Amino acid sequence: MEPSTLLPSIEGLHVDYLEAIGDPVVVHMSAHAPCARCPVCGSASERIHSHYYRTLADLPWAHCSVRIRLRARKFFCDNPVCKRDIFTEPLPELTARYARKTKRLQAELYLIGYSLGGRAGATEADGLGREVGPDTLLRRVRTVSASQDTATTVKALGVDDWAFRKGQHYGTILVDLERHRVLDVLPDREAATLAAWLAAHPGVELVSRDRACAYAEAARQGAPDAVQVADRFHLLHNLVEAVQNLLGRLHQALSQAAKQVNPAAPAAPVADNAGPPPEAAPDAPCAAPANAPAPGQTRAQRESAWRREKRLAVYTEVVERHAGGETQRSIAKTVGLSRMTVRHYLRAGSFPERASRPVDPRPMAAFAAHLHQRIEQGCHNVAQLYREIREQGFTGTYQNVYRYLRRAQVPGLARAPTPPTMPTPSPRATAWLLLLENKPRAAEEEAFLKALCASCPDVVPARDLALEFFRIVHERRRGDLDAWMSRVAQAGLPELQSFANGLNRDKAAVLAALSEPWSNGQTEGQVNRLKLVKRSMYGRANFDLLRARVMPMAQAA
Predict the structure, then answer these.
(1) How far apart are CA 462 and CA 477, in angstroms?
(2) Which of 52, 289, 294, 306 is the most exposed, fewest CB within 10 Å of its CB?
(3) Residues ≥6 apart with Cβ < 8 Å to 90
């Protein structure tokens, strides 16, 4: 029987017979090469010394495990100057020295361990008919990774950090931007570590990095001739952070601007030539707005009503656009909803209200008589009433008692009605409202921005400068950078001035970012992949195993 695709097809090996009774299947093979070469001196020998048997695990057949019972030979070495008198016949195409598995099985186990890790890989291997433990898989991954050659020449290098544990311990990932693959993973983000790696891998012509000072210093030390390129995403991100810091300093102005917005009754647009509104008669009754809050509304209830008005406005727009002939896909793209939500709105027939949480009166039923008796006696202190019924066995919370008494309209619990106001946006949300020019805004957001710009003179120049820098980066206008930094200096905004000072310190890398096509985008993608691998190992694996699984898969295992 000749070797087939089920068995390693190697010249000089012959299949003697099979034992297919039960599991495993045992394949008896023997070596019949006319000679063998000494592994020490390389001289050929035909004199056989003896025979011995090796048992090797091989790939399964239809989920049946296979063992190879190999009859191997030992030869005399006839070279008088060789220090080896007797040598074992090498079979490098079949297996390695002292190995108990064939090379093709080792290659598959490495693939499983590299892709899935230890425990998950062992479960997968067991389902495929390969009996192996988690430690064996991880040991195989480590062995192959240690034998890989990382001394490759790279021209464009991407550098970024990643977190072992966020805020405590970080590492560095190095990416070949031309070949789109990870070159190496370093155990920290110190400048000396990266500089030593660059010195050991000469030939780097370009280093794309974020704006970390440690990486800039490492590139200057390890690759002084390389062009440093600041990542454009991080430039814009740092600018947005500067605008957020400015708005954080103006938090009182944000709150005052939000209080001037009444989302329940937005003002109608007034024509430019319209005169002042007519004055109402002194004794005429003032009609309450349609969406005025009920007496005693809490802040949470006011915000809930405000959110309902926003949903109602979006629902009305969806219905009107559909009546005008627009498709659901176009409506979803314009309004910013998913197609499923648009379809749900159109099929509803009327505005779909959100279901309210039902109130269960049963916990208070046994104590209602006592509460009403104490209220008639003049006790309106909710905390005191709560303590009294707790002593009687009530197991609910203070909020249960408070809501029950509010529904009972106990005097002293109702709050004075307050006009609805827009919740104050955070500095981050306000920054994106200012900087996203093409994004459609709600009416209350437009009113908020108008009130903010009117009450705070620093917001308008900050927005204009930030948008101008966005255009400089997007259009790669490196010649306008100096003029922009001069405008920032004249504006007198400390947050933007600090950002401009940072650009000036790293000016060469910033100018390179406005002219070179490289960026750290794919490096960020490799960091995301590293995080996925790290979390799949539950963060408990050693650094060497994490590095082995992040590095490119070995071509020959």
Answers:
(1) 20
(2) 294
(3) 36, 37, 39, 97
- The 10 Å CB-count burial string (b at 16+, else e) for 505-525 is ebeebbbbbbebebbbebbbe
Nearest to 549 by CA among 118, 77, 40, 70: 118
pTM of the predicted model over 0.85: no
Cα–Cα distance between 125 and 133 in angstroms, integer?
9
User: Is 92 in a helix, a strand, or coil?
Assistant: coil
Max Cα distance, the chain (Å): 127
In this structure, which amino acid lies at residue 488?
V
Q: How many angstroms separate the first and last alpha carbons of the chain? A: 29
Where are the strands (E) in 166-297, listed by range? 169-176, 181-186, 206-209, 227-230
Cβ-based neighbour number of residue 46 at 10 Å? 11
CB atoms within 10 A of CB 331: 24
Q: Which two tokens mark 91?
A: 């079979």
The dihedral of CA 315, 317, 323, 329: what is its sign? negative
Q: 420 CB contacts (<8 Å, ≥6 apart)?
A: 262, 263, 264, 291, 292, 293, 302, 305, 306
Q: Are 345 and 312 contacting, i.e. CB atoms less than 8 angstroms apart?
A: no
**pLDDT tens digit string along 171-197?**
999 999 999 999 999 999 999 999 999
Q: In Å, how far are 313, 314, 315, 335, 344 from 339, measured between CA atoms?
A: 17, 14, 13, 10, 9
Give the tens place of pLDDT for each residue, 303-346.
788 888 888 999 999 999 999 999 999 999 888 899 889 988 88
Alpha-carbon distance of 557 to 551, in angstroms, equals 14
